[in-house]
Amino acid sequence: MLPLFAPDEFFDLYKLDEIELVKIKKDDLNDIFPQGKESYTSNTIHWGFMKYERLTRTDRDQALREWTQAYLANVSFLDAQIGKILDALENSRYAENTLVLFTSDHGYHLGEKNWLFKNSVWEESTRVPFVAAGPGLEAGSECRQPVSLIDIYPTLTDYCGLPGNPHAQTSGFELDGQSLVPLFKSKRPDEFDDYYALTAVGGLNQTEDTQVKLNRSHYTLRTDRYRYTRHGDGIRELYDHRNDPHEWNNLAGKPEYKDIEKQLSERLQSIVWNNKKPDFGL
Q1: Is the separation of the CB atoms in 19 and 68 below 8 Å?
Q2: Is the dihedral of CA 201, 203, 208, 213 positive or negative?
Q3: What are the DSSP calls for the chain, one per residue?
Q4: Residue 20: which pLDDT band, with cuts at 50, 70 and 90?
Q5: Taking CA 49 as the corner, what is the angle to CA 6 and CA 265, rounded to the nearest 5 degrees?
Q6: Cβ(83)–Cβ(13) under 8 Å?
Q7: Cα–Cα distance between 51 and 232 in angstroms, integer?
């Protein structure tokens, strides 16, 4: 299923009978895929659903408890290795002039949405840790503003005082993403409203046409309050994280959220399709 291997000492940190399972809502997918989860077309070909079903065929809670223990053990094992790197930095001559960014490429479902994998457009897969530390950053401060991993490069060039566009003298292409230095320096970073996180997951496309692949991929836009998702077949999802942190109640298509959905849809369209209406080929 997945090589969740770690030394025993890290498994010992999490007693199996004390593992707290994630909250899984019955029929959670009904307001997303009314025709059934088989309608979800992804380049993973339902891998997340398949892994969940295979693992939970007998004793669901026990299987998820063992999986979660292994996952947590691996997280702690990784954390210990990062500690070694930071200790080495702390004991070096670069300790006072180094910016450290810690992040990850994806999160991981532990049963939410009947999914046991990455590669989804839901919060569990798209949310990752992002920790910054170094000169000029206030220790212990927290910012809940969503940002994208594509923001890392412009952040580093800005922080180091390097040219913002390395292609200026060649192709002229501008970099995507935006510098996070303003968030680092602000005393009230949550007041910014122009930051967001965009995630794309490839659709199941039997074509070499780049535009068709782009149109039929799955895109999700996360702001400080909402997540708006547009699937490659046109299915939409909208969640209000202020009132629904588990993404259990899909608000897409509800009249009272029409304006919010329109605003987020137009923003997604401007980012991905350059304000052109995507052709889903339906």
Answers
A1: yes
A2: negative
A3: -------HHHHTTS-GGGPPPPP--TTTTTTT-TT-GGG---TTTTHHHHHHHHHTSS-HHHHHHHHHHHHHHHHHHHHHHHHHHHHHHHTSTTTTS--EEEE-S----SSGGG--SS--SSHHHH---EEEESTT--TT--------GGGHHHHHHHHTT--S-TTTTTT-PPPSS---HHHHH-S-GGG--S--EEEEE--------HHHHHHHSEEEEE-SSEEEEE-TTS-EEEEETTT-TT--S--TT-GGGHHHHHHHHHHHHHHHSTTPPP----
A4: very high
A5: 110
A6: no
A7: 22
Q: Are 64 and 129 in contact (CB under 8 A)?
A: no
Distance between CA atoms of 266 and 276, rounded to whole angstroms?
A: 10
Q: How confident is the model at residue 282 (pLDDT cuts 50, 70, 90)?
A: very low
At 280, the amino acid letter reads F
pLDDT digits (tens, 9 = 90+) for 79-99: 999 999 999 999 999 999 999
Give 242-249 contacts, CB < 8 A, sequence gap 24+.
Answer: 245/123, 246/23, 246/25, 246/112, 247/113, 247/122, 247/123, 248/25, 248/28, 249/31
Neighbours of 215 (CB within 10 A): 19
pTM over 0.70: yes
Q: Which two tokens stand for residue 149?
A: 């991993």
**Tokens 């899984």 map to which residue?**
24
